[in-house]
Amino acid sequence: xxxxxxxxxxxxxxxxxxxxxxxxxxxxxxxxxxxxxxxxxxxxxxxxxxxxxxxxxxxxxxxxxxxxxxxxxxxxxxxxxxxxxxxxxxxxxxxxxxxxxxxxxxxxxxxxxxxxxxxxxxxxxxxxxxxxxxxxxxxxxxxxxxxxxxxxxxxxx
Amino acid sequence: xxxxxxxxxxxxxxxxxxxxxxxxxxxxxxxxxxxxxxxxxxxxxxxxxxxxxxxxxxxxxxxxxxxxxxxxxxxxxxxxxxxxxxxxxxxxxxxxxxxxxxxxxxxxxxxxxxxxxxxxxxxxxxxxxxxxxxxxxxxxxxxxxxxxxxxxxxxxxxxxxxxxxxxxxxxxxxxxxxxxxxxxxxxxxxxxxxxxxxxxxxxxxxxxxxxxxxxxxxxxxxxxxxxxxxxxxxxxxxxxxxxxxxxxxxxxxxxxxxxxxxxxxx
Lengths: 157, 266
What we know:
The complex is a heterodimer. By secondary structure, chain A is an alpha+beta fold. Chain A has one domain. Chain A is built from 6 helices and 2 strands; from the N terminus they run αααααββα. Chain A has a two-stranded antiparallel sheet with strand order 1-2. By secondary structure, chain B is an alpha+beta fold. Chain B folds into 2 domains: 40-156, Immunoglobulins (Immunoglobulin-like); 161-265, Sandwich (Immunoglobulin-like). Chain B is 16% helix and 56% strand. Chain B contains 2 helices and 18 strands. Chain B has helices at 5-38, 117-125; strands at 40-41, 45-49, 52-57, 59-62, 69-79, 85-96, 101-103, 106-111, 128-140, 144-156, 161-165, 169-172, 177-188, 195-204, 210-221, 225-236, 244-253, 256-265. In chain B, a hairpin with a 3-residue loop joins strand 9 (128-140) and strand 10 (144-156). Chain A binds chain B through residues 101, 108-117, 119-120, 123-124, 126-127, 130-131, 133-134, 137-138, 141, and chain B through 4, 6-7, 10-11, 13-14, 17-18, 20-21, 24-25, 28, 143-153. Strand 2 of chain A pairs antiparallel with strand 10 (144-156) of chain B, so a sheet runs across the interface.
């Protein structure tokens, strides 16, 4: 339980607090003029749904720890893999990321940066897909074990 | 109860894929950041070929990172305060394999035939903040490509700026004209263009009519230096006593002909 809280807390920081454009506390530690421009830049780069998906992942990580080594751990992993893949897809904006540099963030410079990183995105999605596979294998293993236990119980009766 | 081999194998793959992803991201970051730190802009030079004024900016850079940088291409446009296109240019594409160095010569071209006389006049005589729009395209090891477009102010120094005339002195010449001498100075505030050519002109009296002429005189001013000399000419004897006249100067230079009206007060 303590480990679940610790892991969920760490993930809450990285997946919600750090990337939430409107109220991330990181901006509070920067000069007012920089933080307002950075918030504008982040809002163009970070999708508003990203912190919400991050929150879902935090909840899933918490319950994954709670239900570790139980039959439903596999199901949690499958769901977590799907949500993490979605999170990664949203972070990479589907493979083409646009970042606006608002006036004032960098002295005398405004502009846009577009990054095409589809291959890199799929490389980052790969662990999520493998997590889905792992969850599915665990589910299948757990069902197989359940059947074996039932067979053993039946034969012993 | 032991974990099945298949699940353990998938777990190992998850770790390997995660490490590979972050490792590659780190390698790309290191390649980009370390290359950016090596960018060195050399001394610029300019030359005139026909109606083209070109500015050459040598840029050297090296790639100390672990991945190659391909298709590095720079495009530059310069716009005036009204958004009018003044100049285009760029450099590349070049590729920098890991551990290599290269040159990215950038040239910016002003095609004087493409500029209106009004724009040319403004560029020649008014120092102002233009807009430099630069686009950089590159790809890191064919995995990721990016395009950055930035707008930044570009401080344009006019070749004929801060033009001033001193008080004229006249002397008798003949029964119709008086000879005069008129101190003139201006600053070539341009980083790139010197002023080579001639200056001549007309003296306009308070009635709006031409009352004298300025003899054509050679000027040869280097970049970012001050020109100071005496103009000479003749003015109608009957009008030579006017306290204030307008001097219509005509500069004929390698980058065009410009007129500038300056008031001279005795």
